[in-house]
Amino acid sequence: MAGGARVTAARVGVVVFPGTNCEHDAVSALTSLGGQAELVWHTAERLEGFDAVVLPGGFAHGDYLRPGAIARFAPVMGAVSRFAAAGGPVVGICNGFQVLTEAGLLPGALQKNAALRFLCAPAALRVTSSRSVLTAGVPVGTELMVPINHFSGSYVCDAATLEELRAEDRIVLRYVENPNGSVDDIAAVANAAGNVVGLMPHPERAVSELLGSADGAVLLRALLASAAGERAA
User: Fold this and answer.
1) Does a structural domain hold residue 1?
2) What is the three-state SS of the chain?
3) Is the residue at 85 inside a domain?
4) Which of 86, 92, 150, 197 minimizes the number of CB atoms within 10 Å of its CB?
5) In terms of residue numbers, what domain contains 220?
6) Catalytic residue among 22, 23, 61, 204
7) Which has the closest alpha carbon to 136: 96, 97, 193, 187?
8) Phi, psi of 20 (to 5 degrees)
């Protein structure tokens, strides 16, 4: 599933908070797929020059209070909010997803897994919307194998929000077999414009068959193509 030509290089900022631990994986994966990825420290107040922003996984600020609760106040999050409001592609992976919900850039919240156990395993996903920067051009129904690695990965929201997500085609990925108790099997959601996406699985860890799966490349290539298209526009 990882076939296809490289897209025109897009410049991607990968945000680093104290406790982030997947930033180099994200940079390596995006670079291997033709992107120009570089690290952005959490104290940065500007994101000019970037075509996309990724908030990677880890334990920002040690997950104190709750995951993402402190990171949302970092100076860079003001810049991320402005970047997103201007239509720039923003993707939060795992802890990055948690930060995006805490910052109000995505609805809902992530709570502890249903079994109260840390999960680290391959997860089968189904693409349920192509109306996002992470799945643009990926046929709905496509199944991908991408690993998960989280303790607070169960997505929750109230009934009204869930109905809104369904009606507006904002549920981007669903688990084929729900591993963590997420409502409606949700693995990823987008904002109303589709340019901000949060997902719990780690596509940056699935860009080569040597890692067990190259299916994550499908999502990251879509992100790079979306970023290149946004820059051209």
Assistant:
1) no
2) CCCCCCCCCCEEEEEECCCECCHHHHHHHHHHCCCEEEEEECCCCCCCCCCEEEECCECHHHHCCCCCCCHHHCHHHHHHHHHHHCCCCEEEECHHHHHHHHCCCCCCEEECCCCCCCEEEEEEEEECCCCCCCCCCCCCCCEEEEEEEECCCEEECCHHHHHHHHHCCCEEEEECCCCCCCHHHEEEEECCCCCEEEECCCHHHCCEHHHCECCHHHHHHHHHHHHHHHHHC
3) yes
4) 86
5) 11-232
6) 204
7) 193
8) -60, 140
Residue 142 lies in a domain: yes
Given 22, 94, 102, 150, the catalytic residue: 94
Residue 94 known to be catalytic: yes
Which of 124, 154, 129, 153 lies closest to 216, judged by CA? 124
pLDDT tier, 4 (very low <50, low <70, confident <90, very high otherwise): very low
Residue 157 catalytic? no
Hey, what amino acid is at 40? Answer: V
Residue type, 135: T
User: For residue 19, what is the domain's CATH number?
Assistant: 3.40.50.880
Answer whether 0.85 is exceeded by the pTM. Answer: yes
Q: How confident is the model at residue 1 (pLDDT cuts 50, 70, 90)?
A: very low
Q: Rounded to whole angstroms, how far apart are CA atoms 81 and 83? A: 5
Q: Are 17 and 57 in contact (CB under 8 A)?
A: no
